[in-house]
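Example 507.
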Amino acid sequence: MKHLTKLLAATLAAGALLLSGCDRSADKADTVASADNQKDTGGSLKGDFGPPQGPEIKAILTSPPMVPPATGRKTPAKVIVELNVVEKEMEISEGVTYTFWTFGGTVPGSFIRIRQGDTVVFHLRNMPDSKMPHNIDLHGVTGPGGGAASSFTAPGHVSRFTFKALNAGLYVYHCATAPVGMHIANGMYGLILVEPPEGLPPVDKEYYVMQGDFYTAGKYREKGHQAFDMQKGIDENPTYVLFNGAEGSMTGDKALTAKTGENVRLFVGNGGPNLVSSFHVIGEIFDKVWFEGGTRYQENVQTTLIPSGGAAIMEFHMEVPGSYVLVDHSIFRAFNKGALAILKADGPENKEIYSGKEVDAMYIGERAQPNLAAVATAATAAKSGALTVDDQIKAGQALFAGTCSTCHQPNGEGLEGVFPPLAKSSYIAADPKKVIDVVLHGLSGPVTVNGKDYNSVMPPMTQLTDDEIANISTYVLNSWGNPGGRIDKAEVATRRKAAPTAAAAEH
Ligand SMILES: [Cu+2]
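Predicted structure in complex with copper (II) ion:
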């Protein structure tokens, strides 16, 4: 024990020596990086610029993915922030609704932008039709609880507290009412940017993106209204991992946009409640990342970590037109839980930097097309008992594009010797209901389709729900010269039970 302590002390001393040695040489290295990037900001001590000056200012709040304009101020002001807590049902995925608890009616909540040294008078109003009390803890507040204790607000009440924003940075705010995990999991978080006194350098586009993990009683994409599942939350086993509170919140015609030649700045937060994000943009390199939302930046970064309850600012220059995919690079979250968004850059090709071809359908899948409305229509029709074959075919087509077409090709022709055709398939004609089994349980070993032999493996599509499989199967049966017919959800459920898949057997 004694030995160990001694050893530790010696190691520490050696480390300290090394460190101070390092420091001195860094002082001498008079590079742009050390002068500009390593300056002493003085922290909260230097963030008090005295009493507010000029008239009171009402903060402009924006809904995601928009960001309020720069404050443009050179002096500290008194800034009024009015934020409403709204509990409301919204779509979490096509045909799936969830009761979110929100700051400002959106997930994440309204973006707040102020300047270091500002005095903020915060009004938190909990709407009269709320069922729960709520409060707010802003990570940019210096003071116990970050405002939480002073802002506990019952339904139909308003509370007010004042703070001086001493530290510059990008900060998360969230509800901190018990059970805290549940309030955050229901969407109660957002970002507040405290600009440094000199402001941020101007860029062409600024966007607000925030990740969160969600826990529903039903499985991923199971249609209808879904309740919160506390046990899944405790187990840190999310059903959805999302950017801006909904699957597809920034894809298709809602994609973020930019032009080539522009500088884009992303303010990215992570509300959690549980997961750490490995935030990445497929096809871009971050020129700069203000990691952890702090004062210093790192350059030339591929993927940046954003902790739960943390944030980062990143900037990059758009060189090549096309679709860039924002993902959590813990990649099952992107392709199987929804953590995927698109930034679409328009402009002339730049063949010297990139030879061309749009990002693979494999990366964006069905999220590239804005046609998932068909899936929602089918879900609504199914609920009211008015689901037609046509609804099913349209929904199935959209889902086929994201699930089956990478192998069997969009026209169902397959790839010779590798993926058998679904078009005019002799396999399907022999027993149309077999489509359900193949999708549910996969297929391997030798098969002959339209006179050609295949001996490969199709994995079971365990991520699909019963009604998704019913719609895809109905689409396949009614396309490309196949025999037609209709598969309903109940039939899929029966066949699923008949031969449990590996995934189902786990329970
Ligand atoms: Cu709350």
